[in-house]
Amino acid sequence: MTEPMPPAGDGDRLAAALKRAAASGGRAASPVPAHQVSARGARRRRRTYAAGAALAVCLVSGGAALAAVQLGRGDEPVGPAVPPSPTKSASLPESSPAERSASPDPGSSPPSRTPTRLPPTVTPSTSLPPSDSATAVPSGG
User: Where are the transmembrane segments (predicted)?
Assistant: First the structure.
């Protein structure tokens, strides 16, 4: 393979300046003593273990609390996730203004009433053709 070409002109001056800066930085730098580095590592290790232990305590206590709540519920049946919404035809009919003014206390709930009409029933549609007796003959044809 070919060797990289040395930079020409300004590149030589830049490379020389960077080498001088690295050399002076290396002379001025003093490494941290080994006992300080190992003490720093031990502190970090202790903090990591403490954080892991605190997380484990939170998870175990949260799981125990959840289990206690579930066990305290007993044998209650589980209801639906969302209650069914009433349809407009199944809702109670509106009361007349005379009935509303006749209520004794406006803050109390109105008495329950039964609906006066039943909701419409839905008949399933079939894809079968109608029978011969119910077939109508088109007029004018």
Answer: 49-69
Please give, one letter per residue, the 3-state secondary structure of the chain.
CCCCCCCCCHHHHHHHHHHHHHHHHHHHCCCCCHHHHHHHHHHHHHHHHHHHHHHHHHHHHHHHHHHHHHHHCCCCCCCCCCCCCCCCCCCCCCCCHHHHHCCCCCCCCCCCCCCCCCCCCCCCCCCCCCCHHHCCCCCCC
Query: Where residue 132 falls among pLDDT bands split at 50, 70, 90?
Result: low
Q: Which of 94, 98, 90 is nearest to 117 (CA)?
A: 90
- Give the tokens for residue 72: 């305290």
Amino acid at 53: A
pTM score, whole prediction: 0.35
Nearest-angstrom CA–CA distance, 141 and 139: 5
